[in-house]
Each structure stands twice: as C-alpha cells, then as structure tokens.
Amino acid sequence: MGDGIDYLNEVRMRGRVAAAPEVKELPSGDQLVTMRVVVGRTDARRDGPARSKDGAGSARSKDGAGSARSRDGTASSRSKDEAVAVRTVVDTIDVACWSASARRVAGRFAAGDVVEVEGALRRRFFRTGAGAASRYEVEARSLRRASAPTRASAPRSSTSP
C-alpha cells in the first residue's frame, strides 16, 4: 500500500465443526466449500452475556445477589464469579475454503470434528433480493483435524447463541 505499515491479517482457531461442510458451485463455475466452526471464548467475563453449558441463558435476580435463575425457573445460590466460571461462551465462525487443497481437506470433516483452521479474515460482498449485503468469514489457507479436548471442556455447537 506504500504507507509504511506492515499490515497483518492472520486467523488461527481451533473448534468444532457445527454441521457437515457444504460444497457450493458459483455462477462462474468455481467451487467453494463452506462450514461453520464453533469456538469457545477465552474470557467470558469480558465478552458479554454468557450461556450455560447446557445452552440455556441465565438471568440474574433484580438484586444481583448470589441467586441466579435459569430460563426453566430453577435457581442456584452461586456467587456472580462462580456463575460466570461454569459457563461456556462460544462464537460460530463462517469458514470459506477456496483452494483445491483446502476444499479437499474440509470435505472430509463431519459435524462434531475438532479442527484447526489458519487463514485470513475477509469481508465478502454480494447481492440479495433486498440489495447489496456483506459478511465476514475466515478464508482458510490450511486446515487439519485436531485431537479432541476432554468432553467437559469442549464447547458444543448446541450452545452457540
């Protein structure tokens, strides 16, 4: 760009494949494989409202004291810190695989597989019936199946917001 800045756009993530990857053929004839990867956040306290491990959100009583009520009405007497500590917060990230090698690897993944993705964040523009639209996604440069973490610590796609 000529402005002396050493720009950096690198994404590296590990998470679970939310559903079977989809092969899409574009009007140009190019093929694309897309999938969603569910990634746990590292610090739920700073990243907004959390969801419990079973996927249900929780609401605090008006006094904000140690009692919390889940959506099904059950209450617990945990402190705020304890309640946050047992929650898992996840993000669901769209991944696009354009290269032949990335498409081939992604095509072997199944829902629930733990994968590692390296690539770059891209903003894609397209037209819809309502006009122009855009979305952010990770354009995968390399992918691989990773070993699964223990079940208790693994974010599940069913907990995605």
Verbal overview:
The protein has 161 residues and is mostly beta strands. It folds into two domains: 1-41 and 89-161, Nucleic acid-binding proteins (OB fold (Dihydrolipoamide Acetyltransferase, E2P), Beta Barrel); 44-88, no CATH class. Helices cover 8% and strands 42% of the residues. It is built from two helices and nine strands. The strands form two sheets. A five-stranded mixed barrel has the order 1-3-7-9-8. A three-stranded antiparallel beta sheet has the order 4-5-6, with no helix packed on it. It starts with 10 loop residues before the first strand and ends in a 16-residue tail after the last strand.
Helix content: under 10%
State the end-to-end distance. Answer: 38 Å
Any guess at the CATH architecture of the largest domain? Beta Barrel
Q: For the largest sheet, list the strands in their spatial order.
A: 1-3-7-9-8
Over the alpha carbons, how many angstroms does the gyration radius reach?
A: 19 Å
Structural class, by secondary structure, is mainly beta
Proportion of strand residues: 35-45%
For this structure, the CATH topology of the largest domain is OB fold (Dihydrolipoamide Acetyltransferase, E2P)
